[in-house]
């Protein structure tokens, strides 16, 4: 699990006895959410050869920033299980009260598994907040 | 919250009641099994659970306790329904009715060995597991999926994928009767429709095991176990459907709890009174997921049974199927009064004592089988329920993690793991070797010490020790 870190934006997984914990940071709230999604995907997937992707878009809303982070990751998990698709690229932008999620999706059949598959986002320790000069988040997922 | 931990003899510790705790905490574990690493929140979670409205007697931790979210994993808490006692989806966990079933083959190790490679090949092909591998059965429509949510393992057996003993030896005879499908959201149904008959990933597995030692002949005979016998152990739950239900209802109860004057120290402990529309709604949805989990394990048993028959000619008889993530309404004589309690067991197995009316007649004299899986490289244990279990007839459910997945991948390479398991005579068919290193034996507590602590604390009695021969993981 090599950390994908830079001072400006990045993500890393952090130890937790049973589950997957991801920290992410970026200049904007939306990019921080996108980094968290990349951190979750990096924990269990490995994409080998380039493959044709299909773009999916949706709006996600929630009543707080932390819940918005959870809702975006839940959307990715839902699409993985209900449609058999995972993002190879993700973009999050503002959209009214929530965010717009754009994903380049591929079939789970062409994605290699390198870790336990996440199944839900826990409210335990869930955080997305603005710090001095950046946004940062923590999220724990059940695997 | 400040934790005041006091050793209460060599086998257990007490967390003293401090501000906000309505009852003390009790950990049924010697000091060496307690998660005391700096930063570990397990014992704080035991104390947090003790703040839940209506909790009675104590917030309990089993010997395999480790850090969860809201409740610790290996946590047991009962609330008094008549006293405003709450139900908390976090006290059940995301994987509703995750559990273990054990099947015993009419085959010994000598009879199995010539067939082992072919059997592992066949199971490898037919048992869905890991990322995106679907399930053994796709419901033709919503009506059939609803029938699974109402009928559990009964539905599967009635459709020709099992025998009557599969229901006699399943907790609740294969299904709970109070499932409320109207409380299950469309997204949960969509996730569940693709995964009926699948193991999943992480710590879930299907193992071929050998009964290495019988420690209680009378119980083992009643369970259908003997020394030298081959068994199949299956560990999995309600898959994405259960997770979606848990997430939905945590959010719903979190929004509603203030109306009941409830605030909790961790958002994942969201709760409302059992006797509230939100509480009843969750219990109805949870029951539907519990039935899905039993149907899931029944489908996997059916596939394992067919593989065994085809390759070895041997049959598989169900020893028992029991959940370790569930809340149940149980009427009990508790602390001088007869009460209806909502008993949350998260990473804890129900362990009914001999004579309990919910036992099938052929187990009435010996108690309920309890399964404590170890790891893919170490033993698993069968215990039986005993009388006077302080923790509302609950027992440990596994070895309990000590390493994060992070640390396991750092400490163990797949090459070392493969070599260790090969030396131990264990054949492993993982979806991904890199993924399976997260489940390396070193990542868990010593299961021998865990079951010993369970026995010394009166949670169960050892019946048999099983060792792994073949392991399928997702």
Automatic annotation (TrEMBL), chain A:
Family annotation (InterPro entries): Archease_dom, Archease_dom_sf
Ranges for domain Archease: 12-143
User: Which family, according to UniProt?
Assistant: Belongs to the archease family.
Q: Which named protein is this?
A: Archease
Keywords tagged on the record: Calcium, Metal-binding, tRNA processing
Pfam families assigned to the protein according to its UniProt record, in alphabetical order = Archease
Task: Please give the Gene3D superfamilies that the UniProt record associates with this protein.
Answer: Archease domain
Annotated source species = Streptomyces halobius
């Amino acid at each position: 699990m090599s950390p994908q870190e830079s001072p400006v934006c990045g993500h890393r997984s952090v130890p937790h006895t049973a589950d997957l914990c991801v920290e992410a940071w970026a200049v904007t709230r939306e990019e921080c959410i996108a980094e968290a999604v990349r951190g979750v995907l990096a924990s269990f997937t490995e994409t080998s050869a380039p493959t044709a992707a299909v773009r999916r878009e949706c709006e996600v809303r929630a009543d707080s920033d932390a819940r918005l982070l959870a809702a975006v990751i839940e959307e990715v998990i839902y699409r993985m299980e209900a449609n058999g698709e995972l993002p190879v690229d993700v973009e999050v932008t503002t959209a009214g009260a929530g965010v717009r999620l754009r994903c380049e999706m591929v079939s789970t059949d062409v994605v290699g598994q390198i870790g336990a598959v996440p199944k839900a986002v826990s409210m335990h320790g869930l955080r997305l907040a603005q710090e001095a000069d950046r946004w940062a988040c923590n999220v724990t997922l059940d695997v | 919250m400040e934790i005041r931990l006091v050793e209460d003899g060599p086998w257990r510790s007490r967390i003293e009641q401090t501000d906000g705790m309505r009852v003390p905490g009790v950990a049924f574990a010697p000091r060496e099994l307690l998660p005391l690493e700096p930063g570990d929140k397990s014992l704080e979670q035991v104390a947090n659970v003790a703040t839940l409205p209506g909790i009675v007697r104590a917030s309990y931790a089993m010997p395999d306790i480790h850090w969860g979210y809201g409740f610790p994993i290996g946590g047991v808490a009962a609330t008094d329904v008549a006293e405003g006692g709450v139900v908390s989806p976090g006290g059940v966990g995301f994987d509703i009715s995750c559990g273990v079933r054990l099947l015993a083959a009419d085959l010994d190790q000598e009879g199995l060995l010539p067939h082992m490679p072919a059997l592992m090949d066949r199971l490898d092909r037919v048992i869905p597991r890991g990322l995106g591998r679907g399930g053994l059965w796709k419901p033709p429509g919503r009506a059939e999926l609803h029938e699974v949510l109402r009928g559990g393992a009964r539905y599967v057996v009635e459709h020709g994928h099992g025998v009557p003993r599969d229901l006699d030896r399943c907790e609740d005879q294969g299904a709970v009767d109070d499932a409320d499908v109207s409380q299950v959201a469309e997204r949960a149904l969509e996730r569940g429709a693709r995964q009926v008959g699948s193991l999943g990933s992480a710590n879930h597995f299907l193992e071929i095991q050998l009964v290495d030692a019988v420690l209680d002949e009378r119980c083992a005979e009643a369970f259908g176990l003997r020394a030298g016998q081959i068994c199949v152990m299956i560990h999995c739950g309600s898959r994405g459907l259960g997770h979606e239900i848990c997430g939905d209802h945590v959010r719903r109860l979190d929004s509603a709890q203030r109306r009941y004057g409830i605030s909790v120290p961790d958002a994942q402990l969201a709760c409302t009174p059992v006797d509230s529309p939100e509480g009843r709604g969750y219990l109805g949805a949870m029951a539907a997921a519990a039935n899905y989990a039993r149907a899931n394990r029944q489908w996997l048993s059916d596939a394992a049974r067919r593989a065994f028959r085809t390759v070895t000619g041997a049959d598989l008889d169900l020893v028992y199927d029991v959940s370790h993530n569930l809340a149940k309404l149980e009427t009990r004589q508790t602390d001088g009064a007869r009460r209806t309690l909502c008993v949350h067991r998260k990473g804890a197995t129900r362990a009914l004592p001999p004579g309990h009316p919910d036992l099938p007649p052929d187990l009435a004299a010996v108690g309920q089988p309890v399964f404590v899986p170890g790891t893919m490289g170490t033993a698993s244990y069968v215990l039986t329920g005993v009388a006077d279990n302080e923790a509302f007839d609950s027992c440990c459910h596994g070895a309990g993690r000590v390493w994060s997945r992070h640390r396991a991948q750092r400490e163990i390479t797949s090459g070392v793991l493969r070599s260790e398991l090969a030396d131990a005579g264990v054949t492993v068919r993982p979806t991904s070797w890199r993924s399976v290193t997260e489940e390396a034996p070193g990542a868990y507590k010593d299961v021998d010490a865990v079951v010993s602590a369970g026995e010394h604390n009166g949670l169960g009695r050892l019946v048999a020790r099983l060792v792994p021969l073949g392991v399928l993981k997702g």
